[in-house]
Design brief:
Rossmann fold; Hypothetical protein af1432; mainly alpha; 2 domains; five-stranded parallel sheet
Length: about 400
């Protein structure tokens, strides 16, 4: 390769390691018209040259040297992820077959015995450099593709999270609850799951991945309320029996909506499976008196049992347009009273152990006066637009405290 073909700054770098000055001068003279040449007169110096600054593209390495031998240098470089990809050609007077075999087994790319044949040496050096260039290209491409996959995966996850929150917010805009209810219940569920992660009844299910799925799915627990008529959904007081029957359908409506979305997608998505469980079963009770199926105990999915505690606690302590918040201690008492009837016993015990965490979450994501006023304005607008609210009837606009399940809603 002539010097005018390749600019010096673009040339590949070859490091020559030999303890004999004449050999270093000979190899430098042979290679300098084709490559950038660095030299080292012992193994220690060679390692410093490789590790400090830009590493060479190829190393011509003598074996018999004082201090670190060529084998020692090769072994260290191949053990280091930062230098293991540098091709090494042993250039030595050790011509025995066993020596060559040992060098190649250590990871050397080639083994050339002295005295050298310059054209053969140059050809073999060029071959190894060409292979390294191709390998580096593929490695860089793979690294780029891996980064792109990570980037695209993050984008997909972000879009997924935004879509979930948008769907949940759509349901929330028609309800008396605020958007902070979604955030609070997410963190309540996560806190409970983390507390129970080592419990023998739950450890198999509550993996880190499943806890992430629970956190992602929790906002969709009341998505079915989108299908409930305004005069029932927005009623401030207790529901009449026939109204309550309609309200109960929000669990099935939520499950079906998520299932239809899953079918349209044409594939199973883990977090949607969890979201369906939560939406459909979070109103079930441990003693079988809940809805929509009336199942109990371990027949209720763990995800729904966790959400049941989180949802009821938040219904009790949250401020609403039609009610003041209940003190934390009183809400805790009601949850504890539901142990073994409304709620899973062990989940209530976990709640009791981390009740201060629940209080902290409720305070961190507390509803502001502005949040409450926006809800009040929405209710007023709904009424002014002739939305039929049964609570408008005489004697019906009571302000009774919701029951422990949030007025059964």
């Amino acid at each position: 390769m002539a010097t005018d073909v390749l600019d010096f700054a673009e040339r590949q770098t070859v490091l020559v390691v030999d303890d004999t000055p004449d050999n270093l001068s000979l190899m430098s003279a042979l290679l300098k018209d084709h490559y950038k040449v660095k030299v080292a007169h012992n193994g220690d110096k060679a390692l410093k040259v490789v590790r400090n600054g830009s590493p060479p593209d190829l190393i011509l390495l003598d074996i018999m040297m004082p201090g670190l031998s060529g084998y020692d240098v090769c072994r260290e470089l191949k053990a280091d992820p930062a230098t293991c990809h540098i091709p090494i050609i042993f250039l030595t007077a050790m011509a025995a077959v066993e020596d060559e075999k040992k060098g190649l087994e250590m990871g050397a790319a080639d083994y050339i015995t002295k005295p050298i044949n310059p054209p053969i040496l140059l050809a073999r050096v060029q071959t190894q450099l060409n292979l390294k260039a191709a390998t580096d290209f593929l490695r860089n491409q793979n690294a780029f593709l891996e980064q792109e996959v990570v980037k695209r995966t993050r984008e997909v996850m972000a879009i997924q999270d935004v879509t979930v929150l948008a769907m949940a917010s759509m349901a929330e805009t028609r309800d008396s609850e605020t958007g902070n209810h979604i955030r609070r219940t997410q963190f309540y569920v996560k806190a409970l799951a983390k507390e129970l992660q080592g419990h023998p009844r739950f450890s198999r299910y509550l993996t880190d991945r499943n806890i992430d799925l629970l956190f992602k799915s929790a906002p969709l627990h009341d998505i079915g309320k989108v299908g409930i008529p305004d005069h029932i959904l927005l009623k401030p007081g207790r529901l009449e029996p026939h109204e309550f029957e309609v309200m109960k359908t929000h669990t099935t409506l939520g499950r079906d909506a998520i299932e239809h979305a899953e079918q349209a997608l044409g594939m199973k998505v883990d977090f949607l499976a969890t979201a369906k469980e939560i939406a459909y079963s979070h109103q079930e009770k441990w003693d079988g008196s809940g809805y929509p199926q009336g199942i109990g105990a371990d027949d209720i999915p763990i995800s729904a049992r966790l959400m049941a505690v989180a949802d009821v606690y938040d219904a009790l302590i949250s401020r609403r347009v039609y009610k003041n918040p209940m003190p934390h201690d009183q809400a805790v008492t009601i949850i504890l009273e539901g142990r073994g009837s409304h709620f899973d016993l062990d989940i209530v015990d976990a709640f009791s152990a981390i009740q201060d965490n629940f209080l902290a979450i409720s305070q961190r994501y507390a509803d502001s006066d502005r949040d409450i006023q926006k809800k009040a304005d929405y209710l007023e607008l709904a009424i002014s637009n002739s939305i039929v609210l049964s609570s408008k009837a005489p004697g019906r606009r009571d302000h009774q405290r919701p029951d422990p399940a949030g007025s059964g809603r």
